[in-house]
Amino acid sequence: MIKTFFIFLPAILLAYLIITNINFSAGKQLLTDFISPQEKTKLVNIANTSSGSFQDIIYHNRQSAFPYHEPYGSGIGIYPGRVVWAHDPASVRWDGNGYWWNTEHFDKNAILQMVEKSITSLTGTNNASAGWNMLFTKHNEMQGILTGYTPGQKIAIKVNLNGTSEYSEDSSGNTQISYANPVLLKAVLISLADSAGVHPEDISVYDVSRIFPKYMIAMCTEGKLNGIHFIGRDNAAADKNTPLIWSQKFDGSDVVSYLPTVVTEASYIINLANLKGHSWGISLCAKNNFGSFMNDNYVRPPVGANLHPFMTDKKMDAYTPLVDLMANSQLGGKTILYMLDALITAPSEEAAVTSENSKWQQSPFNGNYASSIFVSQDPVAVDSVGADFLMNEPAILSENGAIRHHPEIESYLHEAGQVADAPSGTVYYDGMGHAVKNLGTHEHWADENDKNYSRNRGGNNGIELIYIDMAK
């Protein structure tokens, strides 16, 4: 009798809160005291409401949150460790009908303003033209070159097309699965052409593991954008002089993978990733480079190289090829900008995107689309911020078991943040035989409401998250 009572006690407490509508702060503490992580997960499936209030109760103080630690590594960028977050609820106006990616579901002018305002904030400049020039110039200074972009230099933009043409040659893009947002991509291309003065013929957009939708190519090569190249698996060429070299042997490392010529011939790379969950963990800028190499597995090169298990090994302090990709001189070494598309987010790469599963509960979204983009020069910092948002979002946790209660999905960020003395003991190389000393800074926010990091609190290291409320 007593045992039965305690089994049903969490449900009784939850029902009491619903009926009486008592103070939610007290309710949170009651449920935290009585409900185990497993029971919390079950209750999410039972008591998920449109308001998100009960999700907030259930996940408050959850034990799966990332453990706190001091910042690892040194920040990278004009303002080291800076990540800029632009948020505009007006940028997305999807009512849940039709394909999520339909261009009429987005305000193209609002998204262009988000891109350009993010670039100026990241670089501390007064306009996007000066901001882009600063990004190119500072990158070249690291190579001993004293100029910015010059016509003829190639720029490669890596997008994530994971949701399209995975097992077929379909080029329609007609799927509810998540992939690169066409309106955001076009905004980046317009900003490069208009504000940065980049010649369209110098730009290539690529994902050599997928096929680009024809509608996306058409809309992103019209008018002033005529001449931009799109490189998918159907027209990519492997550079046989540039094989990927892993820093450690693993099951799959004997498969020879090559970087494509679109990468090796580029002077600059922009890593435009999706912020979303994944059935193997999290999909951010590091994982985006799973579409940056080719091997005998024409349809799924990362599977051919057996990389997915490293996204969630259920353990910390382990070698990961993700850090090798971040450190590679042809990939991370050429990247001037890291971007996370969080306009409409997906709980995983296999989930059909709906208005229900893509509306976020945490502040400041409060039941609306994330309607955000994130930019940084620091690959470790931007993925650390992205990981915090995913791990603290009920809409993600309720549908993605690979993230829920698995903080070890951040293992690659610990390796990257401490790359000079990696927890696994691995010496990571840049693909050219040079040991890597720093890739960026890794930490977690102190509070999911304030979303502040060390530099926001006056520290001299770690991450600085700059929030831009575009609605103001």
Mean pLDDT: 86
Contiguous uncertain segments of 5+ residues: 1-7, 13-64
Structural class: alpha/beta
Largest sheet: 8 strands, mixed
Task: Please tally the β strands and state the result.
Answer: 14
Main sheet: which strands, in order across?
4-3-2-7-10-13-1-14
Classify the beta-strand content into a percent band: 5-15%
- SSE order in H/E notation? HHHHEHHEHEHEEEHEEEHHHEEEEHHHE
Radius of gyration: 22 Å
Distance between the termini: 58 Å
Helical stretch tally? 15
Overall geometric form: globular
Helix content: 25-40%
Produce the secondary structure layout:
Elements: H1 2-20, H2 24-34, H3 37-47, H4 53-59, E1 82-87, H5 108-123, H6 128-142, E2 155-158, H7 182-194, E3 203-206, H8 214-219, E4 229-231, E5 238-243, E6 258-260, H9 261-264, E7 268-274, E8 276-278, E9 281-283, H10 285-288, H11 301-304, H12 321-327, E10 335-342, E11 359-360, E12 368-369, E13 372-376, H13 379-391, H14 394-397, H15 411-417, E14 464-469
Parallel strand pairs: 1-14, 2-3, 2-7, 3-4, 7-10
Antiparallel strand pairs: 1-13, 5-6, 8-9, 10-13, 11-12
